Model the fold of this input.
Amino acid sequence: MPTKLKLTVEETEAAREAIKAFDRYLKVSDDVSHDGGMNPDRLAEVATSILLEAELNGAKTLREDRQHVTGKSSYDSAEVKAIDVANAENGGKSAVTLYACVDVSRTDVVDAEGKSTLHGDRRTRWPSTYSIWRESGNSPWLVGDLKQDESAC
Done:
């Protein structure tokens, strides 16, 4: 488990589940983008809040512009930065803050004719901090927020 935090067994399990949710999110996000933004309702199974809204808007843009994405997103340097497991004080909500360097160097956005719409000098690696949470013990972990900064990773 990539973290500098001292985690309890319960926190370690929560962090593992949150990372699995993050992996599912990246896969579904890539799938929707590969499909040109079609069937974006799939995103609600892996994302929520601000991030879901942004993903839905991105899918709409792909559909309107008749574009789709090729390739696959990846990440490295993942690290759990903070964790709060469910308890009575936080209303049963668990949350994990995950840092990852997201890499889109193997992706491209292409038009209906298969021509790239991206500039050759685009940024392909983004230091990103994700908020991943579960509303209660029985609900799924969802990725809900993303902050990216301009530094290198």
